[in-house]
Design brief:
Blueprint (H helix, E strand, L loop, with lengths): L28 E10 L5 H10 L3 E6 L4 E5 L5 H9 L4 E8 L17 H5 L2 H5 L9 E6 L17 E2 L13 H10 L16 E6 L9 H13 L2 E6 L8 H12 L3 E5 L17 E7 L17 E4 L1 E6 L3 E6 L1 H18 L5 H10 L11 E2 L2 H7 L68 E8 L4 E2 L3 E3 L2 E8 L6 E6 L5 E7 L3 E7 L2 E9 L3 E11 L1
Parallel strand pairs: 5-7, 5-8, 6-7, 8-9, 9-10, 10-11, 11-14
Antiparallel strand pairs: 1-3, 1-4, 2-3, 12-13, 15-23, 16-22, 17-22, 18-21, 18-23, 19-20, 19-22
Helix pairs in contact: 5-8, 6-7, 9-10
């Protein structure tokens, strides 16, 4: 509520204290917390004596206003009020009043169970935008049930790469749940709230009824969605084996300015999962309500952000489930990206990624940047709630309030659709250590990143010298078809600074000075490679 000027009045038995204003409901006042205003010119020694005589405890003093906020046991508040109102030099006294956030609160019946959107400040983000149907988020999964009450009128045309037709019907429920986290229709008096209320959802079926599929189907789905207007691609899927086709598909979508988001995996390890580990994809871990990663979530410096890992979501048969896993965390981030494009349609993929990364709340070294924040992501793009309109004139006589509707009872505790058998999500595990020990980069500006692509031809390939910033330099070499790779860092004098060999992807990390360095790449087979160079990290 907005606290108006003037002084709250008290009931007749208590008596007035100072200048009275309109009475406030008891639920809007704070029992036992009083605001005491002294007249101008009253010596501080007199103020202190008055307050001491009333046996109140001073909580806060606002000296420029000669106001003291004091506390007293609620049972003694009446006596304190009477004594302070009669004390010399007191201009007025009032009960402190409550205020609350003006953030948008949806009326969906399961909203009270959704801690995830609250944790990422989605209600405040919704004050600025609730999404736009012009922004399409593609959901690559088991399909989407478009007949679900919370997903009706949300879908655009999709495709089924499992059966090879244009009917991506969900026979499992996993894709429907992921889609609901992204963009369930919200504030409709039923079900749960999605992150991007009004975004359009594109069903791209790449997993069968057993939630199994191939990277070739995923790659084809990425390209299909990219060619048909998707601004965001959400992938609640992954595997341990990288393929060149999927890497090429990711590069294709990146070249079209699409934000790609993928689940980091649920093995509770630092092992890379694809597509989340590809350059150009935002890898997402699953975090609990206290911002500690769940014990089942993958982690490491290759994982960009964390997001709430258990979310209420739609299920087949017009039902709802408690959807847990990094598969539930990734679409939440995709929903924020949808809001970002909705609020600023001219934003680039890099704009949105930087806003996501550098507005994230640090949670340690388990992920590179931190836990996402929807409100701050939008603010970083200049998307803020509109200024409030001037208040309308008060009516001569307000109409009688309508009786409050009886709220719909919440459904019993929902079941779980995990990515795999999961431990109880209510008991998050301690945050695991990072292998690299590399701290999160500065939040003020992102380290410069260079991506180099080329072909290995069986002999060392010397790349052109490149200027790098002082600090931690990280080179990631990816060439899935090469049996063994070698990455070497050479300084301006031609001396080898660092070298690493092994299977793709290789990750070379070294503290360096600001100067020009040369990279040398080699592989035992002819293959295409991608080298991602990041410098200037602290």
């Amino acid at each position: 509520m907005a606290v108006g000027a003037g002084v709250a009045s008290f009931d007749e038995e208590w008596g007035q204290a100072g200048v009275a204003a309109a009475a406030a409901p008891e639920t809007e006042l704070v029992a036992g917390r009083l605001v005491v205003k002294f007249r101008d010119g009253i010596p501080p020694s007199t103020e202190r004596k008055v307050l001491a005589d009333a046996a109140v405890r001073v909580e806060t003093t606002v000296r420029p206003l000669d106001i003291h906020v004091v506390e007293v046991p609620p049972a003694d508040a009446r006596e304190a009020l009477t004594e302070l109102a009669a004390a010399p030099g007191v201009e007025y006294i009032e009960l402190d009043a409550r205020v609350e956030s003006l953030a948008t609160t949806p009326n969906d019946t399961l909203w009270s169970q959704q801690w995830g959107p609250v944790r990422i400040s989605a209600p405040s983000a919704w004050d600025a935008t609730t999404g736009s149907s012009a922004i399409v988020v593609a959901v690559l999964d088991t399909g989407i049930d478009g007949t679900h009450p919370d997903l009706q009128d949300a879908l655009v045309a999709g495709y089924d790469f499992v059966e090879g037709d244009s009917s991506p019907t969900d026979e499992n429920g996993h894709g429907t749940a992921a889609a609901g986290v992204v963009g369930a229709r919200t504030n409709n008096g039923k079900g749960q709230a999605g992150i991007c209320w009004r975004c359009s959802l594109m069903p791209v079926k790449v997993l069968n009824a057993d939630r199994a599929g191939t990277t070739s189907a995923v790659a084809a789905g990425v390209v299909w969605a990219a060619d048909r207007g998707a601004r965001v691609i959400s992938m609640s899927l992954g595997g341990s084996q990288p393929t060149q086709m999927l890497a090429d598909a990711v590069d294709y979508a990146v070249s079209k300015g699409i934000v790609l988001v993928a689940a980091a995996g649920n093995e509770g390890s630092q092992e890379l999962s694809y597509p989340a580990a590809y350059v150009g994809v935002i890898g997402v871990a699953g975090s609990a309500e206290n911002d500690v990663l769940y014990g089942w979530s993958n982690y490491g410096s290759w994982v960009h952000v964390a997001a709430p890992g258990c979310n209420i979501a739609p299920a087949l048969g017009a039902q709802y489930v408690n959807f847990c896993g990094t598969s539930a965390a990734a679409p939440l981030v995709a929903g924020i990206a949808g809001l970002a494009f909705s609020g600023r349609p001219t934003a680039t993929r890099t704009d949105v990624e930087n806003a996501l990364f550098h507005s994230a709340a640090p949670i340690g070294a388990s992920v590179r940047y931190g836990r996402v924040n929807a409100e701050l992501t939008l603010a970083a793009l200049g998307v803020k709630p509109p200024s409030p309109a001037p208040p309308a004139p008060a009516p001569a006589a307000p109409p009688a309030p309508a009786p409050a509707p009886t709220p719909t009872p919440l459904a019993p505790g929902p079941s779980v659709i995990p990515d795999r058998p999961l431990p109880a999500p209510e008991r998050p595990q301690p945050e695991p250590p990072s292998l690299s020990g590399v701290p999160a980069p500065p939040r003020a500006s992102a380290p410069p990143v260079t991506t180099i692509r080329g072909r290995l031809r069986g002999k060392p390939l010397r790349l052109g010298a490149r200027a790098v910033r002082a600090g931690r330099l990280i080179g990631t070499l990816t060439a899935p078809r090469a049996r063994t790779l070698t990455l070497t860092l050479v300084d301006p004098r031609g001396s080898r600074v660092a070298r690493i060999s092994g299977r793709s992807p290789l990750r070379l990390s070294r503290q360096v000075r600001a100067q020009r360095y040369r990279f040398v790449v080699a592989g035992t087979r002819r293959a295409r490679f991608t080298l991602r160079i990041e410098s200037g990290r602290n």
